[in-house]
Amino acid sequence: MLAGIFEEFQIDAKLQNVVTDNASNFAKAFTLFQNADDESSEEEALAVVNVNELLENACDDDSDDIPNLPPHKRCGNHSLNLVASADALKAREDKVFQRSYDRAMAKVQALSNVVSRSPKANDTVEEITGHTFLKPTCTRWCSEYYAVERVVEIGLDKVVECETALGLSVMTSADMKFLISFIKVMRPIVAAMKLMEGENNCYVGQLIPTIMGLQRKLQTAGEDPTMKPLTEALIAGLRRRFDCTLQSEEHQVSTMLHPKFKRAFLPDEQSRMQGRQLLLKYVDQVQREVAEPSAILPGGSSSEVEDDEDLYSFLNKPEQAGSSLSDEVIIITSVYLSIWGFHHAG
Q1: Distances from the Cα of 272 to the Cαs of 252, 256, 265, 269, 337, in angstroms?
Q2: Which of 283, 277, 281, 286 has its CA nearest to residue 332?
């Protein structure tokens, strides 16, 4: 189906990567059909086959129909969602955290359930608080965060008044303290998700700095010892799901080409020098690719193109420009940074 969509929109030759969620059907599709024409192993070459069956099925085998999918990238936002939902559950292995979490969340869930099921109860809550309680959904972890945030915003006194009026178990100050700490730990993850799910101004180059910033926030969020199991579980989840991304040269180049970050996300001078060499290598590769005649104009070398047909004859040659590839990269990224700073200062 994916290959058919790419062909229908005539973009199959332009694709560099395909981003999907982390569902197992996508993972299997790209495992089976990524570079399907080129992938063959020594084990397959030496496998024992039944020649009769091979000849009988030869007419049914049409290798041209086998889809060849581009490299696969897992959605950063969906991976963050899994960190916040699945990986965070590891914190419940700590019995103290588990008791506090279950007791406080059960009261949040009870408030959400009663106002969603009973219009009369919802009216009662609105009369007391001027708001209503939100109901978490299983498909979006952020909805749990927003449900807890609404309880914290309303405050303990009015929450207790609502619970008393609705005949529910009353929230204690210890429960509210736990919820406040929970919100403080989880707030950076919600901020990261908002960045990663944006329809505009959302780029691959934002992923590494976002994850690095999130790790730093979680490492310094340990003021409440009750939240230590949660922060440790979240940091471990980020490491497991994003370590490959942080080490990916493709993601690093994307980040260095983003005018907000350039090489500032790299931790020391040595890594920044290595990043510079990586960026130059990438730009040099792109320069060689677009310099091929087939990549610019159809039909043979540039010397065979008539002057009237050479639309790029006005361009300065590298010798005329008077700058090396290294200088050009530095100048261009500096200009990007100046434009970015001017734009946001305005």
Answers
A1: 11, 10, 9, 5, 17
A2: 283
Q: Give pLDDT tens digits for 116-162.
A: 999 999 999 999 999 999 988 766 778 889 999 999 999 999 999 99
Q: Give the residue extent of every domain in the chain.
A: 2-74, 78-244, 254-303+317-345
Return the pLDDT at 70.
Answer: 85
How would residue 32 be classed by pLDDT, with cut points 50, 70 and 90? confident
The DSSP letter of residue 57 is: T
3-state secondary structure the chain: CHHHHHHHCCCCCCCCCEEECCCHHHHHHHHHHECCCCCCCHHHHCCCCCHHHHHHCHHHCCHHHCCCECCEEECHHHHHHHHHHCHHHHHHHCHHHHHHHHHHHHHHHHHHHHHHHCHHHHHHHHHHHCCCCCCCECCEHHHHHHHHHHHHHHCHHHHHHHHHHHCCCCCCHHHHHHHHHHHHHHHHHHHHHHHHCCCCCCCHHHHHHHHHHHHHHHHCCCCCHHHHHHHHHHHHHHHHHHHHHHHCHHHHHHHHCCCCCCCCCCCCHHHHHHHHHHHHHHHHHHHHHHHCHHHHCCCCCHHHCCHHHCCCCCCCCHHHHCCCHHHHHHHHHHHHHHHHHHHHHC
The answer to whether the CB of 22 falls within 8 A of the CB of 85 is no
pLDDT(164) > 90: yes
User: Which of the residue ranges 53-57, 179-183, 196-200, 326-330 has the most confident prediction, judged by mean pLDDT?
Assistant: 179-183
Beta strands in the chain (DSSP E): 18-20, 72-74
Q: Inform me whether the pLDDT recorded for 51 exceeds 60.
A: no
The number of residues in the chain equals 346
Closest CA to 104 of 48, 2, 20, 173: 173
Give dist(CA 249, CA 129) in Å, integer: 52
Mean pLDDT calculated for residue range 158-172: 94
